[in-house]
Amino acid sequence: MAMPEPRLSAGLWVAAYLRRLQLADIPAYVTAKGDPTAGAVIVKCARLDGTARAKARRFDPATGGRVWDVLADGPEAEVDASLARQRGFDPDLWVIEVESRDGRDLLDEPGLSE
User: Fold this and answer.
1) What is the total count of domains within the chain?
2) Which residues, in sequence order, are CB contacts of 68 under 8 Å at separation 6+?
3) Mean pLDDT over residues 64-70, rounded?
């Protein structure tokens, strides 16, 4: 039986992600701090035009890996309302807000995409 891959703690992953965004000159902030060891992470990308997209990781049974899925996309107020509902269900949830006019969040890059 194969051993499961070790997973980074949520707090460490968030710190590394924020650093990677900083190196790419993409502003980002922690808007909700979750459980530092096992909290789930949602990344909201505010496009600075009144719209936003929120992504969350989920297990992909086809590949056995984890992928980023769009949780909400549209007017920023609606995306924020969706995130508030998610936080109501899961108080351990992290929410990272990225500000990028072109919607660039780096989640498709190696090390973050899987």
Assistant:
1) 1
2) 43, 55, 56, 57, 107, 108, 113
3) 87
